[in-house]
Structure formats: structure tokens, C-alpha cells
Design a protein that fits this description.
The chain has 621 residues and is an alpha/beta fold. The model has no long low-confidence stretch (mean pLDDT 93). The structure holds 2-deoxy-2-amino glucitol-6-phosphate.
Length: 621
């Protein structure tokens, strides 16, 4: 996610802004910039001084050390690119035609293309490919010597998620911020004011902050903070005292990035779906696939290549695309695909799923596929990384930077893209699927509701109690077995990988139907077996597997749908999920498995965010 810092007061703005960005570096970024209003010298009016560079903060810092920007009002930004590749031109701040207003932004402007088109028609000149730049030209359009009023009018036209910080050279005593969908925090000191995306950036100056809520505008002057809503009401906001130190604040109070990222999944999935479902819920909007539309008409096969967690997402994708679009799908571990001389041709689509976009095996698989004439689509979380750059098209997840080595929010965002893609292909190749009882509108409405269902699960204290009970009882186990069927066979694999890679306990994920073909020999009173049994079409089959395990004195931890009393008679522990259409169960069933792995690893004192021997991105074979 991008990071914002704003300052107004008596200090040297450059120092506060850069120090604040340093505190936000952990969020991951690919460029950085500052805008500082120069001091008035004699008759010479204040002017906006802007420096920004692609790359790490140090590059910008070196430039500012050689050529410092004097002034006491400024904004700064570290950018995690979502629209427009990571380069200096696309870096923030962006400024208006008249060099009067500068702005930084965190989030996604869904309707930026239509806004940009009308602004260009009105004569505005754009310098970047970003969605953000639309905002500063909108503010300029409405500016009449009152910055917050211009911002209010501009934001009424905007759809999407944003947090912004804005300064104007004609109002040198004002720093304005606004939020809708992305966090923004205000702080005040002795005749000074601060804005930031996240608490760590302010902790060097104040530990009393005001959290802005949706649709609120903060106006900071050396005299203090005023918060208004979009209707111009002045709001009475309470200040909260932060007891965290800076390291804790980077994790927003969570003990580890992994736990923070598990809880970020509702927001990450919302951001990934944003702008990709039509307002009437009748259509999937994937303009990034426009260039492949003709190819899709003749496409005969899809091959998904990926590694680790991304491979598990690919397995879910297979079930979805074959069920909805009736297109044959192969799923291959990239390190096998690259050496097996696969059968591909110009009617094959190869889909590379990768969080980092830099995984060596997946990149090599892509190269192998390219020589065959196949088209390449990547699903990736890092804009401008190697694999998207070498693909014919890319659908980005908007999970934000995933810091923990163990992938969680990137996985569920990959699922979100795969559901969209399966529905998109079905609309093109198998539209009759969406007749009653379930129309595409039903599916897309359900999909949009998934973040709320995950939030509901995460807020349920009974579930956390069961997971902690299992942690206390089984954190010393020599192994775990994870069983699932159909769409939740990949979930079983993912659950086993999570606990393996962060707690170092051996675990195996299996298709439950395979029990009789071997794993049942493992069942004993010391082996916890996690059985994923939501109320879906294979529920009865899962129940039989559970009874087989209980008959052999095995330990069963079931993941089931709320209200299912029957399963509790056959399980040692049950973790209940909110009711949803079972076709979407992989979003929910994986979350308790992420938490179980996390709490067991924590109990075992493991280095959860940086597990031994593992790297976040495996850029070597
Ligand atoms: C997942 O928790 C692991 N960190 C690992 O399996 C990862 O999914 C795999 O290395 C693929 O990485 P990628 O998605 O960046 O290509």
C-alpha cells in the first residue's frame, strides 16, 4: 500500500516528511516523492517545490541532501504502484496545471478513466498514467480560494478507495487530508499538525492521534485540527492515545505481519474486486483482457502454472473454470512444467499465478510456454514485476504488499481474481450456465459479500477460542493431516503448507477420497486430522471420512458451516464458518487454517514472519 505523510508547523517540513516516510517503508513501495511550499522571500511568492524519484527512499534523500527544500508545509508519499508502472513520472506528488495544488493519494480511483477524459476535454494536461492525477486536476477545477471546499466537490465525483493529502500555494497555512476506504490519521502538536497513512509516521512527534472515518476531511493549521464531513458539518472527533512503539505500530498493534495480513484479507479482497463488477452486478469488468478477447473465442485449453500457495490457488481455478466455462484446465507446478515438454499450441492460454512476479520457476515456465505460441496471462500482486512484463495480459491482485513470507491475503486475492476470471470466461463461452436458479448477478453479489463473511468469521470469539484450544493441545504434535474434497482439496494442501512453513511441524494435505489408498494407515490418537467439511456437495463423503477416522481413535478438527450440529458428534473440535454459497467456500475455509498455523507457530516460538530457510520470493531455481 502507498504511504502518506503531511506536515504544517514550525519545523523543517523536509525533515519531518522524510523521517515519516522512513517509518512507512515496511509497507513496501517502488517510488517516493515530496512537495514543499517554499517560504515567501520578500516579494517573491511561495511556490511548490517538488522532488520525486522511482526506486528506494535513499535515492530521493540523496537529492534532497544536496538540494534541500526549505519550507514548513509539505506532503510526501511512498508509492506501491497499482495503475501506471513504477517510474518517476508516476510517482507522487502530482500537481495541477497551474502548479498551484499538489496532492498525494493512497488507494484506487475506480472511475478515473471517465473523469480523465472529461478533464482533458476541459483542457487539463496530464503528465502521468496514474489514476491519482485525476484527483489533483479535479481539485483544481473546483478551486475558488478554499482548498477543503474544492476537495469536497471533487470527491463527490470520485468512486473508489482513497486517502489523500493536499496543499495549495495560495493557502500556505493549510494542510488538508480526506479519506474514504484507505486509512488516514491526523495528529497535532504545539502550533503544528500532521497527517499520515499509518501511526508509525507520527510517533516521533505525537502519540495522540485522530483517526479519520469514511468521507471525512481534516483541515490542519498551526492553530489546530478541524474535521468536517462531505456535508460541511464540523465534527467532534476524539483523540486516541497510542501506547505502541514504532515497531508495534508498523504491524498496527498485531504481534506479526502474518496476523495483520490475515486480518487485512477483507480489505484486500474488496480492493481486488473494486471496479471489476458492474454496478448492476450483471457483468465482470476486466478491461485488461481486451487484447485477448479474440483469442478467447478460439481458445481450447488453459494451463495454469505456479508454485507453492499460488499453485493451490491454481487448483481452485481449475475447478471454477471447468465448472462455469467448461474449458479444459491443466494445473502444473511450474518447476515440473518447465521440464516436461508440455503440449501447447496457439489455442492454449497459459496462466501464471504469482504474488511476487519474480519466482524463477514460474518465469522459466512462462518462457517455455512462449516458444510454443501459447498466449500468456499472469495474475500477480506486484505491478511491473518480471512475469507481468513478459505476459500478453495481466490481472493484478490489489492485496497490497505482503510482508510475511507465508502467503495469506495474496492467496485469497488470487482466488478473487480466479472467480472473476471463471465468471468472465463463462459469460463468453458458456453463458447458458447463468440461467435460474443462479444468475451471474447472484454469483457476483455473493462474491462481493465475501469480505464481510471473512470479517464476520474473524470477529467471532468462539472460533478463536476453539483455535486456541487446538493450539494448546496439539502444538507439540509430530504431524498433522489435512483432508478436503473438490474445491477444498486445494484448501487442505494450503493448510498443510501454512503449518509446515511457519511451525516446522510436518503436515500433509490430501484429497479425503484418498484416505483408503494410504493415509488411513497413519490414523492414531496423536495425529490431529483437520477435516474441511463445509455444507457442500461432498459433505456426506467428508462425514464418512470423519467417521472412519473416529472409528480408529483419530483426532478430528472439523471446519464446518455454522448450524451443523451433526458434525460436532463426530469431531473432537469444530470451527464454524458463516453460511455462504458453498461454491465460495475456499475463501472462508482457509482462514481458520491460516490462524491455526499462526497460533501453533507462535506457541512454538517460531520466527513467524521470516521462517528459517524460506524467502518471500524464490528468484532462484
Ligand atoms: C507460500 O506461503 C510460500 N511463501 C510460497 O509457497 C509461495 O507461495 C511460492 O514461493 C510462490 O511465490 P509467488 O506467488 O511469489 O510466485
Amino acid at each position: 500500500m502507498c504511504g502518506i505523510v503531511g506536515y504544517i508547523g514550525k519545523r523543517n517540513a523536509q525533515e519531518v516528511l522524510i523521517k515519516g516516510l522512513r517509518r512507512l517503508e515496511y509497507r513496501g513501495y517502488d517510488s517516493a516523492g515530496v512537495a514543499i511550499l517554499s517560504d515567501k522571500v520578500g516579494k517573491r511568492p511561495s511556490r511548490l517545490q517538488i522532488e520525486k524519484r522511482a526506486g528506494k527512499l535513499g535515492i530521493l534523500e540523496n537529492i534532497l541532501t544536496q538540494k534541500p527544500l526549505a519550507g514548513n508545509l509539505g506532503i510526501s508519499h511512498v508509492r506501491w504502484a497499482t495503475h501506471g508502472i513504477p517510474n518517476t513520472k508516476n510517482a507522487h506528488p502530482h500537481w495541477c496545471c497551474a502548479n498551484r495544488i499538489a496532492l498525494v493519494h493512497n488507494g484506487i480511483i475506480e472511475n478515473y478513466e471517465e473523469l480523465k477524459e472529461s478533464l482533458i476535454k476541459e483542457g487539463h494536461k496530464f503528465r502521468s498514467q496514474t489514476d491519482t492525477e485525476v484527483l489533483v486536476h479535479l481539485v483544481e477545477k473546483f478551486y475558488q480560494a478554499n482548498l477543503e471546499e474544492a476537495i469536497r466537490r471533487a470527491l463527490k465525483l470520485v468512486r473508489g478507495a482513497y486517502a489523500i493529502s493536499v496543499i495549495c500555494k495560495d493557502e500556505p497555512d493549510k494542510l488538508v487530508g480526506a479519506r474514504c476506504g484507505s486509512p488516514l490519521i491526523a495528529g497535532t502538536g504545539e502550533e503544528e499538525g500532521f497527517l499520515a497513512s499509518d501511526i508509525p509516521a507520527l510517533l516521533d512527534y505525537t502519540n495522540e492521534v485522530t483517526l479519520l472515518d469514511e468521507g471525512e476531511i481534516a483541515v490542519l493549521t498551526p492553530r489546530g485540527l478541524e474535521v468536517q464531513n462531505l456535508k460541511k458539518d464540523i465534527l467532534n472527533k476524539e483523540k486516541i492515545k497510542i501506547s505502541w512503539d514504532a515497531a508495534q505500530a508498523e504491524k498496527e498493534g498485531f504481534p506479526h505481519f502474518m496476523l495483520k495480513e490475515i486480518h487485512e484479507q477483507p480489505r484486500a479482497i474488496t480492493n481486488t474486486l473494486m471496479g471489476r463488477i458492474s454496478e448492476d452486478k450483471e457483468k465482470v469488468l476486466l478491461p485488461e483482457l481486451k487484447s485477448l478477447e479474440k483469442f478467447f473465442a478460439s481458445m481450447e485449453k488453459i494451463v495454469i502454472i505456479s508454485c507453492g500457495t499460488a499453485w493451490h490457488a491454481g487448483l481452485v481455478g481449475k475447478y471454477l473454470i471447468e465448472e462455469f466455462a467448461r474449458i479444459p484446465v491443466e494445473v502444473d507446478i511450474a518447476s515440473e512444467f518447465r521440464y516436461r515438454n508440455p503440449i501447447l499450441n496457439d489455442k492454449t492460454l497459459v496462466v501464471a499465478i504469482t504474488q511476487s512476479g519474480e519466482t524463477a520457476d514460474t518465469l522459466a515456465g512462462l518462457h517455455a510456454a512462449k516458444n510454443s505460441g501459447a498466449k500468456i496471462l499472469s495474475i500477480c500482486n506486484v505491478l511491473g514485476s518480471s512475469i507481468p512484463r513478459e505476459s500478453d495480459a495481466v490481472i493484478y491482485t490489489h492485496a497490497g504488499p505482503e510482508i510475511a513470507v507465508a502467503s495469506t491475503k495474496a492467496y485469497t486475492c488470487q482466488l478473487a481474481v480466479l472467480y472473476l476470471f471463471a465468471f468472465y470466461l463463462a459469460s463468453l463461452k458458456n453463458p447458458s450456465y447463468f440461467t435460474k436458479p443462479h444468475s451471474l448477478k447472484d454469483y457476483l453479489t455473493n462474491l462481493e459479500n465475501i469480505p464481510a463473511k471473512i470479517e464476520e468469521f474473524l470477529n467471532n470469539k468462539d472460533n478463536k477460542k476453539v483455535i486456541r484450544q487446538c493450539t494448546r493441545r496439539y502444538h507439540r504434535s509430530f504431524g498433522f493431516l489435512y483432508l478436503g474434497r473438490s474445491l477444498n482439496f486445494p484448501t487442505a494442501l494450503e493448510g498443510a503448507l501454512k503449518i509446515k512453513e511457519i511451525s516446522y511441524i510436518h503436515a500433509e494435505g490430501y484429497g479425503a477420497g484418498e484416505m483408503k489408498h494410504g493415509p488411513i494407515a497413519l490414523i492414531n490418537p496423536h495425529l490431529p486430522v483437520v477435516c474441511i467439511a463445509p455444507g457442500d456437495s461432498v459433505y456426506e463423503k467428508m462425514l464418512s471420512n470423519i467417521e472412519e477416522i473416529k472409528a480408529r481413535k483419530g483426532i478430528v478438527i472439523s471446519v464446518a458451516t455454522e448450524g451443523d450440529k451433526f458434525i460436532s458428534h463426530h469431531s473432537n473440535h469444530v470451527i464454524y464458518l458463516p453460511r455462504i454459497n458453498p461454491v465460495f467456500s475456499p475463501f472462508l475455509t482457509v482462514v481458520p487454517l491460516q490462524l491455526l498455523a499462526y497460533y501453533i507457530a507462535a506457541k512454538r516460538g517460531c520466527d513467524i514472519d521470516r521462517p528459517k530457510n524460506l524467502a518471500k520470493s524464490v528468484t532462484v531455481e
